[in-house]
Design a protein that fits this description.
Blueprint: H1 2-24, E1 26-35, E2 42-47, H2 60-69, E3 73-76, H3 90-105, E4 110-112, H4 116-123, H5 132-142, E5 144-146, E6 152-154, E7 159-164, H6 185-190, E8 198-203, H7 209-215, E9 219-222, E10 231-232, E11 236-237, E12 252-256, E13 259-263, E14 280-289
Parallel strand pairs: 1-14, 2-3, 3-4, 4-5, 7-8, 8-9, 9-13
Antiparallel strand pairs: 2-14, 6-7, 10-11, 12-13
Bound molecules: fe (ii) ion (FE2).
């Protein structure tokens, strides 16, 4: 009995330590991609699913990590605030997000697309003391370029960035199986693709990766799954936000239809403050010219 209690206590202490460490720390994951559409080397970082988390006072540690990477721009791919009043109020997570944007925008262009938590403010307005429009205006005033379906950025370096605000029906928890977006949904949401550019699509949920690739995005940036909450060796992420076990696309880089998709593990938590063998992740991407002739 004593031995069983000892094993149980040791496991409890171990997992508590892992969770505390993974919730409060983050790693940097680096990717290199080559494309003929890229004229000169460009580096950007992706911050996603922060959910109002602060790494050090006023996100000092996160800002310092971004500074060390010296990116040309920063992409925020949604759920930077929390649309659920759990532990902290949603308003306070908007304050944290706004403050981070203000700090980073002093040095880098920031392109921001909403996740389902930002969109909850629009979908369920009675639950919030502020509107979606007011929140996005605050982020824009703090220095972010908000890419919310209609808006897009064509940068001088040949990169076009669009941000998808997905209709709420496509986030519903009771939808099962591999899902597809309706035909031409992306054309009507974010517009048609301009092939002359290297097209980055910020699309918060990786659920529809095949559709993003089919639309033609050279690179899609997603998050949403929080790495599957727990990462298991050889298996990957354990659970999706729709409570599906061992979903596809929980983290990493994918290659669908000859296009690339990066899914970040995100940086924060909501509802349950748990991450196991799955610290927060700051993604850093180098886009390089492909000078091969074929
Ligand atoms: Fe999300």
């Amino acid at each position: 009995m004593g031995f069983i209690l000892f094993i149980f206590s040791a496991c409890f202490a171990f997992f508590t330590g892992v969770i505390i460490s993974d919730v409060n720390d983050f790693c940097v994951t680096r990717y290199r991609l080559k494309s003929k559409k890229i004229k000169k080397r460009v580096r950007f970082v992706q911050i996603t699913d922060l959910h109002g988390k602060e790494f050090g006072p006023d996100n000092k540690r996160l800002v310092a990590a971004v500074d060390r990477l010296k990116p040309d721009f920063v992409i925020m791919s949604g759920d930077i605030m929390s649309g659920k009043n759990l532990g902290r109020t949603s308003e306070s997570t908007v304050d944290t997000a706004e403050s981070l944007i203000r700090k980073l925008s002093l040095k880098y262009p920031i392109y921001f697309a909403p996740g389902n938590h930002e969109q909850r403010v629009e979908w369920l307005p009675d639950l919030f003391s502020f509107t979606y429009k007011e929140m996005m205006e605050r982020f824009a005033k703090a220095g972010a370029t908000v890419l919310d379906n209609d808006e897009y950025i064509r940068r001088g370096d040949g990169i076009c960035i669009k941000g998808l605000a997905l209709h709420k029906d496509y986030y519903l928890k009771n939808r099962k199986g591999r899902l597809r977006l309706p035909f031409a949904y992306l054309d009507s949401a974010v517009g048609e693709l301009d092939e002359k550019y290297f097209n980055i699509l910020i699309a918060h949920t990786p659920e529809y990766i095949r559709d993003y690739a089919g639309w033609g995005a050279d690179l899609t940036l997603s998050g949403h799954y929080h790495g599957g909450i727990m990462k298991l060796p050889f298996i990957g992420g354990v659970i999706s936000p729709k409570y599906r076990l061992f979903p596809e696309y929980t983290f990493g880089m994918f290659n669908e239809c000859g296009k690339k998709q990066i899914v970040s593990c995100g940086m924060g938590t909501h509802t349950l403050p748990v991450r196991v063998f799955n610290p927060g992740e700051l993604v850093c991407v180098d886009l390089l010219p492909d000078r091969r002739t074929k």
